[in-house]
Write a structure and sequence with these properties.
Elements: E1 3-11, E2 17-24, E3 29-33, H1 40-55, H2 63-73, H3 80-101, H4 105-108, E4 117-125, H5 128-140, E5 146-150, E6 178-179, E7 185-188, H6 190-208, E8 214-217, H7 224-234, E9 241-243, H8 253-260, E10 265-267, H9 278-282, E11 288-289, H10 299-310, E12 315-318, H11 326-338, E13 342-346, H12 352-357, E14 358-360, E15 363-365, E16 368-370, E17 379-381, H13 383-387, E18 394-395, E19 398-401, E20 406-407
Parallel strand pairs: 4-5, 4-13, 5-8, 7-19, 8-9, 9-10, 10-11, 11-12, 12-13
Antiparallel strand pairs: 1-2, 2-3, 4-16, 6-18, 14-17, 15-16, 19-20
The chain binds D-gluconic acid and magnesium ion.
Length: 409
């Protein structure tokens, strides 16, 4: 199974995606997702300039060896650009291996450990009325677990809430990356946020009852003591998890949060290796790992990460925002189905244009996702359709405090 071609395909059917297509001498093709939101072209260039030439002539069957070769031979390790590029290669090779075996990928990973993959959707609103409508809509379309994000009084634009749906891409879905040559500026005030959020969850619990799993994303904005305070204040509302409560470059920060609250903690969508989690998992400072196949180096290291986490009763909660392409989402679903310590999967459905470009076999029914039983990942890229959507410059926003200081977005 010699690799004879590897093509980097950039397409923008509503938002940008980078896909690697690896072709073998027998004409089989495998796909991998290399999308890094707002920095897509860097990964495309890393792949095209430095990785594709190294793949040609290699045996596509040797996935572990190829992963170690790409990781170690670069000398410069880790980082989102490098690891997203390696992810795409690794995922494409697993897609190829499963296609060659005539099996859905989850079978090669050990087979199904469950019937379906519990998914959570994103409800949001500028006020309580809009938020309740959004939760009802998610329940109507089948979601059985819901992330709740709301505007904060006195702030103009808050993460997770579409400010002006008409100006956002993604057919009305929340899409933080905005087309244009400069990133949008948002405002932030942690004190106002901390005052507001517990009341929101109290209202949601009163309206929707005690059963519904509720999640919330703090999006890296709090200090450890602020995060501890929020976690404690949310305890009566029994959250499934509080996500990214602090920017976790400093893993020790989570010790302080953990000492003060029993609200379960999820972290890691911006991490890209197991090293980012070493203290967090070994000291059981978190409950869920948020890494995605797309950004953490592919299926090979993700399997190792979740197996390490399993020894400490830490579960998976893979990142599944719309900037994970359908290829990356399918890869996550095969892994979700196979592993034992699955927790939950984030799921933001893609828009129609994206689904025309990426033909998928995965399904969402009654709150549960399933990757389907086609050989490989079960996703094909329609290159003709993709070519109709050229790359568009787009950036994630950034935040400033009231006095103008840049804050974490
Ligand atoms: C999530 C994430 C996303 C990110 C986005 C950035 O929990 O889904 O926080 O909304 O902001 O993926 O590219
Ligand atoms: Mg998040």
């Amino acid at each position: 199974m010699k690799i004879v071609a590897a093509d980097v395909l950039v397409t923008s059917p509503g938002r940008n995606f980078v896909t690697l297509k690896v072709t073998t001498e027998d004409g089989l093709t495998g796909l991998g997702d290399a999308t890094l939101n707002g920095r897509e072209l860097s990964v495309a260039s890393y792949l095209g300039d430095h990785v594709v030439p190294l793949l040609l002539g290699r045996d596509a069957r040797n996935i572990e060896d190829t992963w170690q070769f790409l990781y170690r031979s670069a000398y410069w390790r880790r980082g989102p650009v490098t690891m997203s590029a390696i992810s795409a290669v690794d995922t494409a090779l697993w897609d190829l291996k499963a296609k060659a075996a005539g099996m859905p990928l989850y079978q090669l990973l050990g087979g199904a450990s469950r019937k379906g993959i519990l998914a959570y959707g994103h409800a949001s609103g500028q006020d309580q009325h809009q938020l309740f409508d959004s939760i009802r809509h998610h329940l109507d379309v089948g979601f059985r677990a819901i992330r709740v994000q709301t505007s904060v009084p006195s702030l103009n634009a808050v993460y997770g809430v579409p400010a002006a749906p008409a100006s956002r891409e993604g057919d009305g879905h929340y899409e933080p990356a905005q087309r244009g040559s400069l990133p949008a500026e948002e405002d932030w005030d942690t004190r106002a946020y901390l005052r507001h959020i517990p009341g929101v969850f109290e209202a949601v619990r009163n309206e929707f009852g005690p059963e519904l799993p509720l999640l919330h994303d703090g999006h890296h904005r709090m200090t450890p003591i602020e995060a501890a305070r929020l976690g404690k204040a949310l305890e009566p509302y029994d959250l499934f998890w509080l996500e990214d409560c602090t920017p976790a470059e400093n893993q020790e920060a989570l010790r302080l949060v953990r000492q003060h609250t029993i609200t379960p903690l999820a972290i890691g969508e911006v991490f890209n290796t197991v090293w980012d989690y070493q203290t967090l998992i070994r000291e059981q400072l978190i409950d869920y790992v948020r890494s995605s196949v797309t950004h953490a180096g592919g299926i090979t290291p993700m399997r190792k990460l979740v197996d390490f986490a399993a020894q400490y009763q830490v579960k998976s909660g893979m990142h599944g925002a719309t900037d994970i392409s359908p290829v990356g989402m399918a890869a996550a679903l095969h892994l979700d189905l196979a592993i034992h310590n699955f927790g939950i999967q984030e799921y933001m459905p893609h828009n129609e244009r994206t689904n025309e470009v990426f033909r998928q076999t995965f399904t969402f029914r009654d709150g549960y996702l399933h990757p389907g039983d086609e050989p490989g990942l079960g996703v094909e890229l329609d290159e003709k359709a993709a070519a109709g959507f050229p790359y568009q410059t787009a950036y994630l926003p950034f935040s400033r405090l009231r006095d103008g200081t840049i804050h974490d977005w």
